């Protein structure tokens, strides 16, 4: 038997421990979003330490190296050093290759060194972002973790974006966001390899950019009367003599700082200066910009139709806009100026003598052609300053300006039409690119625009539309998410709507179409969400939520509940009654049948643990279930629910009043009778209602319950009064009316409609279930 010498034992243990400490990486361990174009994994790892050198020869390379170095300093407790010379090993270096595309990079990692090759700064930025995502997620920690190994696998990544325009629009007008939040957003865009930030600086509800020649734009137009206690579309018309106190604006110096900082992240800032509509804030500041010099206040909330628009017949309008553009281009070096061009209601143009004269003098047939004249004239001026214009797809109406780029938001047809005419296009259709839409079930989400763009739908988005010719597809610059801010009063609200949907969009715009796979994306997203946690990003966990859809089988007197989740092949488990979801839950495989009142709890599980918020619902059976309902006032044809069984099927409506479970009355009161088929002992009636004041839906102001045994003579047994109260949120409420126990066969319910809202609009009354017990 051979005995190992102490020297050989030391060598053996050193080799053993070295090998043992190195993780063997597979493709599943590479959690980069967006997914790289090409990836090769080799054996071994590179480990960062205090001895690691970043070889940086330009100021830009030093700056971007320091951004990563500072993360090691915070999370690792050590600081790699900058160097101008290449050491023997343990270094990161940058190499320039002019043959690569502008934003492409090659990341070559071996155990001794990391080499980043790119044409210029953009590629270097994105390579370092990939290194960041190869590192453990705790690299984002603000606290030192001394025992953590800072290893990344030996890989060769050859990567480049599919599209040149990968954008996000922030609406600063509906709610103002300051410089600090814009800077934070720029950092997060770079992290996701996005390269455009479109700032919506002008709209009806606020003018957010300082224009020195026209100080009233920010003295008046940047401030509105504070009506934040009311739902957006329920806010009242403001008096022009009432001083606004809610709002804000960015100075030219602040905007220049933002632009300068964005350049260090390869992000182009695109300013949007709306015209000819969405400019009430400008007209409130300078009434002479409108057709009839009308005095208006800056709107505090929703505005429709948009009739207060710039006068297209006055030369002074164009003088004003040209002066504004002159100041804008001194701030923004971007190739483009976005001029809006959307949703202009031209009724004033049709009556305005100046506009009519303009049409006659220029041979324009209608106000659509007048808008085209407006856009083309402003494009010509902007072009003379070395810039191009972008407009929403309405600029197609009446003839498109010759060198304009179209941002297609009303679906993709506007973009398709523009590409056929040889114009460049940015695709940003409402579905799925409007991030102000709900991303989860409305009952569980903060107030948003009443439509639905979940994470998986964003991931399916492709800017190149099926059927486009190769030549047309070349005109598709890329895509963009738009975040309109009606319902977003603060930065955390904004973050919630952006993340993680931005991650899905980043992959659709960067990665090859062939490499995109939802089943592959979702595990990588979980890793990215962990980074969001360390970064303090208030991201939505909506994708984790279990959602339920119920159907009533009245013949069998049962309810069937189907559970689902956004993730592929979800592990959904549930319990019934008051059980804890973590104790022996049942794996969901098929619809669950209910024949009696039961509490249902369900959750998505990962690694045998519930994740996200637990879904909880109570399926309530009652004495009115599956009985006959007679409507003494008919429900509105637009909201029929599930027909005459809606009120007694136990399936409850959600905050989404388009879910098919609501019956509604416009202005009219609701009056109906439930026939219990025989005398029953009853003592309580519950009426389920919805309030969404922004949509004109209000709770009943009064509810009465009457009972009868013959269906002819009724006696009132109870009522509830509910005076109108302002309500910013959407709300579900059960109105319970209790009374002394009595026998009755017929139950009449009268719910009184508000009739008119404080804004003067007709009021809706929405009811979904009458529960009799």
Kindly describe this structure.
The protein has 773 residues and is of the alpha/beta class. The longest helix has 18 residues. The chain starts with 5 loop residues before the first helix and ends with a strand. The protein is globular, with a radius of gyration of 31 Å. Helix 2 runs parallel beside helix 3 and helix 4 packs parallel to helix 6. The N terminus is likely disordered. 25% of the residues lie in helices and 28% in strands. The chain has an eight-stranded parallel barrel, surrounded by six helices. Strands 1-7-5-6-4-2-3 form a seven-stranded mixed β-sheet, with helices on one face. Strands 29, 30, 31, 32, 33, 34 and 35 form a seven-stranded antiparallel β-sheet that branches.
Morphology call: globular
Percent helix range = 10-25%
Provide mean pLDDT, rounded. 94
- Helix and strand composition category: alpha/beta
**Number of DSSP E strands:** 35
| Strand portion | 25-35%
Unreliable sequence segments: 1-20
Rg = 31 Å
C-alpha termini separation:
88 Å
**Strands side by side in the biggest sheet:** 8-9-14-15-16-17-18-21
**Tally of separate helices:** 18
**How is the main sheet built?**
8 strands, parallel, barrel
Topology:
Blueprint: H1 6-21, E1 38-47, E2 53-55, H2 59-76, E3 81-83, E4 91-96, E5 105-109, E6 113-118, H3 121-134, E7 151-159, E8 165-171, H4 179-191, E9 196-200, E10 202-203, E11 206-207, H5 216-219, E12 223-224, E13 246-247, H6 252-263, E14 268-275, H7 280-285, H8 315-331, E15 336-340, H9 347-351, H10 353-361, H11 367-384, E16 388-392, E17 405-408, H12 413-420, E18 425-427, H13 430-433, E19 437-438, E20 449-452, H14 455-460, H15 470-473, E21 476-483, H16 491-498, H17 501-510, H18 518-535, E22 547-553, E23 558-564, E24 572-576, E25 586-587, E26 592-594, E27 598-606, E28 609-619, E29 628-631, E30 663-666, E31 670-691, E32 702-708, E33 715-721, E34 731-752, E35 764-772
Parallel strand pairs: 2-3, 2-4, 4-6, 8-9, 8-21, 9-14, 14-15, 15-16, 16-17, 17-18, 18-21, 19-20
Antiparallel strand pairs: 1-7, 5-6, 5-7, 10-11, 12-13, 22-23, 23-26, 24-25, 24-27, 27-28, 29-31, 30-35, 31-34, 31-35, 32-33, 32-34
Helix pairs in contact: 2-3, 4-6
């Amino acid at each position: 038997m051979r005995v190992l010498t102490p020297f050989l034992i030391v060598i053996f243990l050193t080799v053993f421990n070295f090998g043992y400490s190195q993780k063997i990486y597979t493709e599943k361990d590479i959690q980069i979003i967006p997914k790289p174009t090409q990836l090769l994994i080799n054996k071994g790892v590179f480990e960062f330490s205090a001895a690691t050198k970043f070889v940086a020869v330009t100021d830009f390379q030093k700056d971007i190296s320091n951004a990563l170095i500072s993360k090691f300093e915070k999370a690792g407790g050590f600081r790699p050093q900058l160097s101008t010379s290449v050491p023997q090993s343990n270094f990161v270096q940058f190499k320039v290759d002019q043959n690569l595309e502008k934003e492409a990079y090659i990341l070559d990692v071996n155990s001794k060194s990391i080499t980043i090759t790119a044409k210029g700064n953009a590629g270097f930025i994105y390579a370092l972002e990939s290194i960041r995502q190869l590192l453990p997620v705790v690299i984002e920690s603000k606290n030192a973790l001394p025992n953590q190994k800072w290893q990344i696998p030996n890989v060769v990544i050859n990567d480049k974006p599919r599209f040149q325009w990968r954008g996000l629009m922030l609406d600063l007008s509906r709610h103002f966001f300051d410089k600090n939040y814009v800077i934070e957003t720029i950092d997060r865009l770079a992290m996701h390899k996005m390269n455009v930030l479109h700032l919506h600086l002008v709209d009806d509800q606020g003018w957010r950019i300082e224009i020195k020649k026209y100080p009233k734009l920010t003295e008046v137009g940047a401030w509105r009367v504070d009506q934040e206690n009311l739902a957006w579309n329920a806010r009242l018309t403001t008096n022009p003599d009432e001083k606004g106190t809610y709002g804000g604006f960015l100075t030219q110096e602040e905007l220049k700082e933002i632009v300068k900082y964005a350049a260090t992240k390869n992000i182009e800032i695109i300013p949007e200066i709306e015209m000819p509509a969405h400019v009430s804030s400008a007209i409130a500041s300078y009434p002479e910009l409108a057709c009839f010099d009308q005095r208006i206040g800056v709107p505090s909330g929703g505005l429709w139709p948009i009739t207060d628009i710039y006068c297209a017949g006055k030369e002074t309008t164009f003088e004003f806009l040209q002066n504004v553009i002159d100041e804008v281009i001194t701030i923004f070096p971007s190739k483009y100026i976005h001029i809006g061009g959307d949703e202009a209601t031209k009724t004033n143009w049709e009556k305005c003598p100046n506009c009519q004269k303009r049409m006659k003098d220029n041979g324009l047939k209608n106000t659509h052609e007048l808008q085209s004249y407006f856009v083309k004239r402003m494009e010509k001026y902007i072009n003379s300053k070395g810039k191009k214009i972008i407009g929403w797809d309405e600029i197609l109406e009446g003839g498109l300006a010759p060198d304009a780029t179209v941002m297609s938001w009303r679906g993709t047809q506007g973009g398709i039409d523009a590409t056929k005419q040889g114009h460049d296009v940015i695709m940003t259709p409402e579905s799925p690119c409007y991030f102000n839409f709900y991303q989860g079930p409305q009952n569980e989400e903060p107030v948003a625009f009443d439509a639905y763009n979940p994470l998986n739908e964003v991931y399916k988005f492709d800017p190149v539309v099926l059927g486009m010719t190769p030549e047309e597809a070349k005109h598709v610059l890329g895509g963009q998410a738009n975040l309109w801010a009606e319902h977003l009063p603060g930065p955390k609200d904004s973050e919630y709507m952006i993340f993680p949907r931005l991650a899905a969009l980043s992959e659709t715009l960067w990665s090859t179409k062939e490499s995109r796979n939802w089943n592959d994306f979702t595990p990588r997203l979980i890793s990215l969400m962990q980074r969001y946690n360390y970064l303090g990003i208030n991201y939505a966990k909506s994708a984790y939520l279990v959602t339920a859809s119920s159907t009533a089988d009245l013949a069998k007197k049962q309810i069937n509940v189907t559970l689902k989740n956004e993730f592929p092949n979800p592990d959904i488990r549930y319990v019934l009654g008051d059980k804890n979801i973590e104790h022996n839950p049942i794996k969901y495989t098929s619809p669950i049948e209910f024949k009696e009142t039961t509490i249902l709890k369900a959750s998505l599980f990962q690694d045998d643990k519930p994740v996200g918020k637990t879904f909880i619902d109570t399926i309530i059976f009652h004495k009115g279930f599956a009985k006959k309902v007679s409507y003494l006032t008919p429900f509105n044809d637009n909201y029929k629910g599930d027909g005459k069984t809606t009120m007694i099927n136990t399936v409850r409506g959600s905050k989404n009043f388009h879910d098919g479970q609501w019956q509604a009355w416009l202005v009219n009161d609701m009056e109906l009778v439930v026939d219990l088929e025989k005398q029953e002992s009853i003592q309580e009636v519950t009426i389920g209602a919805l309030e969404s004041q922004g949509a004109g839906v209000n709770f009943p102001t009064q509810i009465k319950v009457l009972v009868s045994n013959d269906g002819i003579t009724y006696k009132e047994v109870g009522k509830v009064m509910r005076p109108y109260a302002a309500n910013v949120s959407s709300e579900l409420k059960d109105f319970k009316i209790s009374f002394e126990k009595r026998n009755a066969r017929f139950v009449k319910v009268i719910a009184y409609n508000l009739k008119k809202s404080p804004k003067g609009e007709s009021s809706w009354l929405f009811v979904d279930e009458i529960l009799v017990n």
